[in-house]
Design a protein that fits this description.
3 helices, 53% strand, disordered N terminus
């Protein structure tokens, strides 16, 4: 009898482990009742729906079952229009439930409940819907690499706080999802519950953090059968009014337009904008930019941020190219000057089609057209005025085909094309990407090949290729990759790329804990080595190795420490601004610390000091990022950010002559101050304040000549003033009211100004006085967007 004990024990353990790894299944129940979204579940049908329960901790103590006093139960109903979700979230201390009211898509200090839905059950992409205990909605499209919260769906939810905890009721229309045409639907499904005060997250189907991929670890939703989905056609008309006052005068501008969203079928959607208006988008951060490349700007226009996950594959799409600045340099006679040079190009219209078939084939197409734009040139001798085209009528196309297979692998083809009318520059780029993972998500093989072709006065082609291998699961992980970029690789007509003509080798290894220890809730350390060499000269342009350590304490404060050593002499092939030239860079060491306090506390602090030491006398970089935040209550909070840099004995390009390149040894100092405030009237109505003051200067001490060897020698003859002093001010005060699903009224007051000079002023008060005495621009705008569902109109008429 006792001989059977080991066998029985082994059998028990095997069955237990096997059961633990099996996917949970929830049965959706059909309904013909009218489900009122009020967070109360009064409809009789809820009583007979199947229950999802037995949640398991995702982090920090991965695999630990949820306690009885935090029990969570979820049910799902469906009809021909939507699925309905009811969640009961028990809490033995309901008074401690965190419930900060924030703007949409801002998590804040709140408990959260969310549902992750994968309509194709392919382990590749989730549609995620979150609701906070304050009733604020958040949603995103998620892949293993990225959560895109710029995507916004139209869905309904309601939260109720109770004596036993809180409840959530959600209605998610089929229009917000993508799934196959099958009569019997099988979806990937998971639920997540976050208990903010304990900094704990639980999921219905267990997610093992030793496995790198999260989406394939979802459970299964069954029971949705024979649904007849309604037409997915949505119209979003808008109208805006702007009053602007500046030194050159004042005026009123009226705008109106229309956004269209049409479901071609249950998998593909068409989005179009007619007569676009981006007047209330977030301002760009103007800075003193002395780098050899253009400043890369953040995209804030909703059309180019929402649902663009397919288009962002491969890094060939930089949407600020569309409607950005011109690409043409004007040739002027000595007596001519430019009197009007438009800073942007108007977008005439744009359309995108995207979706995925039930066999995992994703297709994306984006097209945009910008108008012909001219600058005004004055001849000072004759008084004659002429117009010169700085950007012709331009068509931008992006086409993506992405085939998923084996739930966690994909092969992607991308083509980006820019066609300009007339004899202007045209460009075409194609790319093939692959991301192959083992079925258990243990190892990954990835890579790409990209080819660019430019048609201009001198045509040229280039390419870039990369391959990498990584272990993606377990406590110990590693990876290595290699890259080659040719001399003429150029994607800068629809993408953005700074570096070319080099080859690279990279390797890393990491260790992490998956359960708390006596010191840390989470801990991870990563070590890496990175080398880049110029293809033509064979000289090293990057040679570094470093260590990154991240941890969360038992008090839920976050700590991070980074140190990077560059012990070899390297060369910068871009700072000289002339092909074939390079400048020597000495050895250096970089170190940074990041402390972020537990944001459950009313007062929180982010502190990030950094330091770079070069192997050159007095050449250092000091940095400090500090951000205190105070949350007065669930409605009101204020945040201040100081981002400060001081570069001593910095060396950089200042001018290029016919025979020599001039550098300068200089001091640089930058201080950016941001102040934000938020007051939430309720979870659909907020008042927000954003103020930014930026000041930076560059003071040259002595000039230098770049030698062919890459070293710098003194120049005692150059005498031009290349000092810079830069002030920038932005102030936004906005009111937003989401008065109906997808419909918003917003009022914005904007005040901004900018001052550039070659006279360095190191007194902060004097700089502030100068910027506020400059010609500030004031803009007051009102915008109304209204969401119209074709089915609602059809039913009414």
């Amino acid at each position: 009898m006792f001989k059977l004990v080991p066998t029985a024990l082994f059998y028990f353990i095997f069955i237990s482990l096997n059961a633990q790894s099996q996917k949970k299944t929830l049965q959706a129940k059909p309904t013909t009742e009218n489900i009122v979204i009020d967070g109360r579940f009064n409809e009789e049908i809820w009583k007979s729906a199947a229950v999802a329960s037995d949640f398991i901790m995702f982090e920090p103590d991965n695999g630990k079952p949820i306690s009885v006093d935090k029990k969570t139960e979820v049910k799902i109903l469906y009809d021909n229009n939507a699925i309905y979700i009811a969640a009961l979230l028990y809490d033995d201390e309901p008074a401690k439930i965190q419930k900060e009211i924030t703007n949409r898509d801002i998590f804040g200090v709140s408990d959260h409940f969310s549902v992750y839905i994968n309509g194709f059950n392919d382990g590749q992409q989730d549609f995620r819907f979150f609701v906070s205990a304050a009733g604020v909605q958040m949603d995103c499209i998620a892949t293993e690499d990225f959560e895109d919260f710029s995507w916004d769906a139209i869905w309904d939810s309601q939260v109720t706080l109770t004596e036993f905890g809180w409840t959530v009721e959600m209605k998610i229309p089929y229009a917000a999802l993508r799934f196959s045409k099958a009569d019997k639907q099988i979806w990937g499904l998971n639920f997540m519950r976050e208990i903010k005060r304990d900094v704990q997250k639980y999921t219905w189907n267990r997610i093992d953090t030793k496995i790198g991929a999260v989406i394939p670890q979802a459970g299964i939703l069954q029971g949705i059968e024979n649904i007849k989905t309604p037409t997915r056609l949505f119209l979003i008309p808008y109208s805006s009014a702007y009053y602007q006052q500046s030194a050159i005068g004042s005026g009123i501008t009226l705008k109106a337009g229309l956004d269209i969203k049409y479901g071609i079928n249950d998998s593909f959607t068409l989005d179009a904008i007619l007569v676009p208006d981006f007047g209330q988008t977030k301002f760009d951060n103007a800075i003193l930019y002395l780098e050899p490349f253009e400043q890369q700007l953040e995209e804030n226009r909703p059309f180019f941020t929402e649902g663009t996950d397919l288009f962002n594959k491969g890094g060939l799409f930089y949407s600020r190219r569309i409607g950005g600045g011109s690409t043409t340099e004007l040739l002027l006679d000595n007596q001519e000057e430019i009197t009007n040079y438009p800073s942007t190009v108007n977008l005439l219209n744009a359309v995108k089609i995207s979706g995925r078939t039930e066999k995992g084939l994703g297709i994306g197409f984006l097209n945009a057209v910008t108008e012909k734009t001219k600058a005004t040139i004055l001849n000072n001798d004759t008084g004659q005025i002429r117009k010169e085209v700085i950007e012709p009528l331009t068509n931008y196309n992006l086409f993506v085909v992405d085939q998923r297979f084996n739930q966690n692998s994909s092969i992607t083809f991308i083509n980006a094309n820019t066609t300009r009318n007339g004899d202007f520059r045209d460009a075409n780029t194609s790319a093939l990407l692959f991301d192959l993972n083992t079925k258990a998500n243990t190892y990954s093989l990835y890579g790409d090949f990209k080819y660019s072709s430019i048609k201009t006065t001198e045509d040229y082609d280039g390419f870039k290729t990369e391959i990498g291998f990584a272990k993606t699961s377990g406590k110990y992980r590693y990876g290595f990759s290699g890259k080659y970029v040719s001399e003429n690789y150029d994607i800068n007509d629809l993408g953005i790329n700074f570096y070319s003509n080099y080859h690279n080798a990279y390797a890393n290894g990491s260790y992490r804990i998956v359960n708390p220890t006596k010191l840390f809730n989470t801990f991870r350390i990563n070590q890496y080595i990175n080398f880049e060499m110029d293809n033509t000269s064979g000289k090293l342009q990057t040679g570094a190795f470093g260590t990154e350590t991240k941890a969360t304490t038992l008090n839920n404060d976050a700590l991070e420490f980074v140190v990077e050593f560059s012990p070899l002499k390297t060369y910068d092939f871009y700072e000289p601004r002339e092909y074939g030239k390079y400048v020597f860079l000495p050895e250096k060491v970089f170190a940074a610390v990041n402390f972020t306090s537990n944001d459950n506390n009313p007062f929180t602090l982010v502190l990030q000091p950094s330091f770079t030491k070069y192997n050159e006398k007095n050449r250092n970089v000091y940095g400090l990022y500090i951000s205190p935040k105070y949350r007065f209550n669930d409605r009101l909070s204020i945040t201040y950010i100081l981002d400060y840099f001081n570069k001593t004995n910095d060396r950089g390009w200042v001018d290029s002559g016919p025979t020599e390149i001039i550098f300068a040894e200089r001091s640089r100092e930058t201080a950016q101050n941001d102040f934000t405030g938020k007051y939430a009237i309720n979870n659909r109505m907020t008042v927000n304040l954003t103020a930014r003051y930026y000041w930076s200067y560059s003071k040259n001490h002595k000039f230098l000549i770049l030698q062919n060897s890459g070293y710098l020698t003194p120049n005692n003859t150059y005498a031009q003033n290349k000092d810079r002093n830069f002030n920038s001010w932005n102030f936004d005060l906005s009111y937003s009211w989401w008065f109906a699903p997808g419909s918003e009224i917003s009022v914005l007051y904007r005040n901004f100004g900018l001052e550039r000079t070659d006279m360095v002023e190191k007194d902060l008060s004097a700089n502030l006085k100068n910027i506020f005495n400059s010609d500030l621009t004031n803009v007051l705008s009102i915008s109304i967007r209204y969401f119209i569902d074709y089915n609602v109109i059809k039913n009414k008429f």
